[in-house]
Amino acid sequence: MRKLFIYMMVCMLSVDAHAQTNLLIDKGNKLYEEQKYKEAAAVYQKALSKNPTLTPGLFNLGNSLYQQKQFDASRQVMGATEKAATNKTAKSAADYNIGNTYMAEKKWEDALKSYKQTLRNNPQDTDAKYNLSYAEEMLKKQQGGGGKDQKQQQQDQKKQDQKQQQQKDNKDKDKDQQKQDQQNKDQKDQDKKDQQQAQSQPSKLSQQQADQLLNALQQEEKKLHEKQQKEKGIPVKLDKDW
Predict the structure, then answer these.
(1) Which of 16, 118, 171, 210 is the 20 to 30 Å CA partner of 239?
(2) Does pTM top 0.70 for this prediction?
């Protein structure tokens, strides 16, 4: 968008009215520079309520609406600006901004018309020349260039979609692999921990093993006792009488 006009009072039919309007335009410009476009638009509208054909107020209001992406409203205000402007420079600036609103909405044919009108009033406008060339190129692509370009665009878009899908699949695959690797690592760590705990604890006998061991000790003790009795010459008491 073009820079804001700096309103300068030239004719003073009513000093107070013009002074108030001037202050409002200055206030709106400060808000615009701070990127407070909604607030700036409200101030410009207030200034225009005092002077509806004030070119700087109209132009700057159109810019504020453009920045809020209110393209249709911006075009209407810029159209009023073009009609109210008294010189070709201001008219070309309004037409240029109208072209920009169409560019933002990808309405290439309408943008072309606006930029051509801009160059009629200001043939040296390099920005308008560049945008005109760009809009012409985009319009050709939109129309398909005889069918071949359109087919190529479809193929390119299909390849791009496939590439994006492949990238997504690869990312998902990498995530799954990382998850599996982490699970394997966690399982190995747990197995190692369990093994270390098993080695650090004394082995425990089952109840059956304990009973067998106790019985073996008792039998061994009995045999030892019998041997000692024989060596002393003491008759050994038999379990049964014959």
Answers:
(1) 210
(2) no
